[in-house]
Amino acid sequence: MIEVHDLWFYYDSNPVLKGVSLEINSGEIVAIMGENGAGKTTLIKHFNGLLKPKRGYVKVFGIDTRYATVAQLSRRVGLVFQNPDHQLFAETVEEEVSFALKNFGFPKEVISERVERVLKLLDLYDLKDRSPFTLSGGERRRVTIASVLCYDPDIIIFDEPTVGQDYMQKEKLAQLIKLLHTRSKTVIVVTHDIEFVAENFPRVILLSSGRIIADGSTRKILTDEDLMKKANLVLPQVTQIAYSLHEFGIPKDLLLVHEIRDSILKIFAGGTYDGS
Amino acid sequence: MAIIEVKDLSYKYPGSSKYALRDISLNIDEGEFVVITGPSGCGKTTLCRCFNGLIPHFYGGEFIGDVIVNGMSVKNTPITILSKYVGMVFQDPESQLFSLNVEREVAFGLENLGLDREEIRFRVNEVLELMGISHLRNRAPFELSGGEQQKVALAACLAMRPKILVLDEPTSHLDPVSAYSLLNLLNELKNKLKLTVVIVEHRLEALVAICDKLIIMNEGKIVFNEDPKTVFSKENINSIKGIGIGIPKVVELYHNLLNSGFALRNIPLSPKMFKEYLLEVVRK
Which residue in B237, B188, B250, B35 sits closest to A235, CA to CA? Predict the structure, then answer.
């Protein structure tokens, strides 16, 4: 569904992406991780044609993005930006969210029905007449998500969606991603939030200085100390504990609290172990 | 000695029908490292705005009670005086930066203090080095990454040599390694310069092991204000979860084991502490 082949990109003379190749299939849920400045945002901007490859190519649904317009691609690839203030412009939440649908020429009844459904889904319905600029940071971010979801793209890309979000909102975002997954959507998330990835994403693509240094299962990548160091990431806290107890027979590749709990209970005999 | 005293503070933004802060009392001692957390809209950013007088002087609104910072009542002290003592780094670094290059950005506050050129040059170099951003000195802040902008905003703040540093989600745009090194740097500064550090943050994993106090707010009130081990104790943990606070995994693991009948001596705040407490039990 997304095919990237030997993608090179530079803003001035310094290459930001240096020969990136990857494939993402329909219905996948993928996290893209890597250090500040690794090229993550630059990479995803190629998926809806905002940026065009300097070398290599990107194909989305078989369409080479070099020969397609952003308007054509964005109908099927929705991108939710990092900073909501770069995206919001309308006078009310409702207008903001219906903007794309109007542009795509949907009939009025469809627009109002869809907008209502999406606003309710994201707990924004009561705020529909407010100006986006009077909302809190978390609310504004949800408006940007709503404005993408309402035109129902096949691929939804989130750039750092957990920044500034509290625990409950993060939980809701995780639920939303699951919901999109059940509707066979492809979800791509750029994030630094290791715990969020450990709990919600089966596949990770690790980017470092413009190159992919790993692409595979979350468990394999997030519990690999060397890889994580290379990408300026730290091991999930559970994995750190697992590493420190490896000498007692705890496996290193644990990600979740219940996994390490069970492992500790097993090895140290349910707390009845007395050392003898 | 308390460097920040909040006395029976209630506050309402102009035009709002609801109090953003409700009857808050709080002391922060000089040299303390304090973390404030709570769900969005709980009032934590609003509370921080009181520490340098942005509330009430800039925002207006209804201000009941008092906030005393470094011996001065914020009600009667202009922001220009307070900001000599209280440095503030906002959530969104972009909203704080305005110069065309990093060096000018960092020097701006110092020029306004009327320092001489040599002193300004010295301090600018000092903080750029401290933050590890000397190589960015001629770059425009708006073309930097979010993480780099966050460091520039903090450098500009530190150059003023404040006694109190208030940071609103200072690591939100940083990758984990940069986030850890920034927090360690703040901890070092706290010790070296006797700086008082107040951080507003949702992600507690890296912070609970270095902070002296953890304040949890909900709906405009302070619900907990203790050292992190006390805050996360068995008695409190369910109500903290109910408020919707992300509990560090190591703390969660402690409670999970406890519920399975496996008790450690105390609540670990880092993987290192966890191992230490676990070995005590195992080797007994």
Answer: B250
User: Are A203 and A31 within 8 A, CB to CB?
Assistant: yes
Beta partners for A5?
Answer: A57
Residue B254 lies in a domain: yes
- Quick check: B175 and A260 CB within 8 A? no
Decide: A32 and A205 in contact? Cβ < 8 Å: yes
Position B7 in a domain: no
Nearest CA in chain B to A195: B249
Provide the strand spans (E) within B38-152. Answer: 62-69, 72-73, 86-89
Spatial contact of B100 and B109, defined as CB atoms under 8 Å apart: no
Domains defined for chain A, CATH in brackets = 2-222 (3.40.50.300), 236-276 (no CATH)
The answer, for A241 touching chain B at a CB cutoff of 8 Å, is yes
Tell me the whole-structure pTM to 2 decimals. 0.88
Q: Average of pLDDT values for B80-87?
A: 91
* Domain around B254: 248-284
Q: What is the pLDDT of residues A25-81, one digit of tens each?
A: 999 999 999 988 889 999 999 999 999 999 999 999 999 999 999 888 988 999 998
pLDDT bracket for residue B207 (50, 70, 90)? very high
* Amino acid A271: pLDDT: 46
- Asked if residue B277 is part of any domain, the answer here is yes
Task: Note whether residue B108 is domain-resident.
Answer: no
* Dihedral angle computed from the Cα positions of residues B212, B184, A207 and B272, in that order, rounded to the nearest 10 degrees: -60
